[in-house]
Amino acid sequence: MFRRMIAAVSCIFIAGLLPAETLWGPVTERHAVPLESGGEVAFVLTMGEIGIATFDATPRFVDALEFEITIPDSIRAFLLPISLAVFSNVTISDDDPPMARDARSAASHVAQNARKVVFSLPLRLDHSVRATADTIVAEPMMEYDGSPFAITIIPVSKGMPDSARDAEFPVRIRPIFRNEGAVVLELLSPEGTTLERESLGPHTITIDGREVVFDPDGIVLVPGVKRLGLQSETYLEYSASIGVERGVTKKHVVQLEHPHAKVLISAPRGTTLFVNGEIVDTTSREIMLRPGEHTVMFRVGDFSVTRRIRVEPKRTYNVSLTLDVLVNED
User: Fold this and answer.
1) Which long-range contacts (CB under 8 A, 24 or more apart) does 95-100 make?
2) What's the pTM value of the predicted model, to 2 decimals?
């Protein structure tokens, strides 16, 4: 295995121990980094082996990819300097075992006598990742997604004790998310069928009272609880609370309803009103009905009157019950 490692080293490093733009070596680990809160992949590499990382979805809200490498005691005991190298846009062969090649050098760091090395590889120019005492931040990548990514560990010095040759380096790779999330709006008609946004007619979408632009891939928002509003000339005004999570795109179903009709009620005191078989409070003298046919019944004592009415959206109707005294001469 150590001969295989040396072959990889000769292709990765040129004179002066500077990282080159090419990569060649055996791929021993291949993982898809989960794009969810707390998602990470963990595996073990020995020197000269190559670990491959891709994304399990489009990294829309990923600011950086963070690599955490733990240095084993067998390396630290001899104060051996090692180089941790990360590459992007890796080509993987169909060989058995597969080989990594034709990659771009993305970041490298020489460590000596460190227990752990953590460095972040920004995936965009406008990233918000900051270096700390424990984290090294590489130069940002020019591309949104440079996967597949490769990580390998290379000895810097030529001499190496036998006990260190097969040392295992635990590796963890995790996404660092931007402080953003998104909500995808799925519009449903009153009948339950999917609607295109154009079917709304003139409309306005608001978040916390501010107008936003509709995006079929999701409206990008700062995490938190928001108030979604949708005003349309075709449908009843919609309002709902939505939760936005960092780095997550969620779907929210907007169940639209036809605008109601306003019905003004006029009836003698003591009259009981039923609409579609349900008793209705007539204190306000105004009720809202869905478009279509409805059954209205007035009851005064033992006397009742029933009528069928049809109402249209955004119209106002007056429904009155009048009592009169009819006098006939015998």
Assistant:
1) 97/26, 97/27, 97/28, 98/26, 98/27, 98/30, 99/24, 99/25, 99/26, 99/27, 100/23, 100/24, 100/25, 100/26, 100/27, 100/50, 100/52, 100/150
2) 0.70
Q: Does domain 261-320 have CATH number 2.60.40.1120?
A: yes
Answer CATH for 181-255 from 2.60.120, 1.10.10, 2.60.40, 3.30.2000 = 2.60.40
First CA to last CA across the chain, in angstroms? 123
Q: Over 60: is that where the pLDDT of 79 sits?
A: yes
The encoded tokens of residue 229 equal: 């509003």
- Compute the distance between CA of residue 164 and CA of residue 64 in angstroms, rounded to an integer: 31
Residues of the chain with CATH 2.60.40.1120: 261-320
Q: Cis (ω within 30 of 0) for the bond into 97? A: yes
Question: Which tops the pLDDT comparison, 45 or 10?
Answer: 45
